[in-house]
Amino acid sequence: MTKKPKKDNQKNDEGRYKKIFKHAGDAVFVADSEENIVTDCNQKALELTGFSKKELIGTNVADLHPKGIQKETLDKFKKQARGEAGIIETKIITKKGKEIPVSISSARIENNEKTELVGIFRDVSEKKATEKKFQLIFDSVGDALFILDLNGNFLEVNKAACQRLGYTKDELLSMGAKDIDAPEHAAQLKDKIQELQEKGEAIMETAHLTKKGKRIPIELSNKIIEYNDKVAILSVARDVSSGRELKWAKKRTKAMFNLIPNAIFTVNKDRKVTAWNQAAEKITGFKAEEIIGNDCTKFAHEPCNKHCSLLDEKTEKPIFGKECSIKTKTGEILTINKNVDTLEDDEGKTIGGVESFEDISKRKKMEDNLEEKLDELERMNKLMVDREKKMIELKEKIKRLENKK
Q1: How many angstroms separate the CA atoms of 204 and 67, rounded?
Q2: Cα–Cα distance for residue pair 254/287, rounded to 1 Å
Q3: Whole-model pTM?
Q4: Tens-place pLDDT, residues 21-38
């Protein structure tokens, strides 16, 4: 077999790099790291911004973003390129002045002459629209809803919570559960959160105080969830002042089970599924009636189909952020991120378990594609540097020969 000359291989690699760069599904910008000037960009970058390539080349990176966030975005961009930050979310501004939300992944490409920053910009307008839709649903619920961090501080509240308690949303977001709980319940907050982390979910009776000091008896349904990639608490607060409201509290709490965006299911000690929410149906394709009563291995894949950490007494629980895979009704294998904990009876005996999960297959694929692209860019950069070194050596040889003459 005849081997291709190295020069031909380099040309092939350069051609492959150019094709990857040109046809990438996301906007790619290359910038000088010292001067922050755009030195190259692909077709998707032109489509995203509305500018021509001639207009973008030479532009300061900061000018790609709205004026109010230029410095902040540039600082985040550089930190990310140094490996000090993950994917960042910000906005770019188009030629027509439209602001578009984007997520940015970046890396530094070094050679012996200069350092360049490669930024991959993804339009997340659709994601933001989904978040807006979630907020509309969140605000349409009649019960007061609170999302809290593990210290009891409010991260999100709905309109019903504001209306019931008499605070504005901004006021509540600067407060925490201790600020609205009746004193006897506020004193137990730390212990209650600890207990909730151990069990995964809990229903309790408490009392809230309005801004004017009015006391409202509450049935509080709490559940550990993932919110903005962090462990958080979803609290559904139902006013049980009326006996009729108390009668329907459990039924409506069950309805909330199906409003939560994460897939949730429970199993008994025999690993038979006992509950299955709508998000689980949407992700897996299995309806509740097809799953409930069946062994969880019907959808579980690696590694859960071989070893169940949920019911393994040696495995410490709760478990947060575990990655594994599941099998959908159509046979598709999905990568998920899940939280796991046991369910106990009033005597503290394990009677089963609860799991919540989200499909991260697309995110994983994007990360893998990004890593491949960056590896390819780094390899091409090395090839180009090596070629430049050889050219310098060749020029020096020619110069020595000329001097000898």
Answers
A1: 48
A2: 17
A3: 0.39
A4: 777 788 999 888 788 899
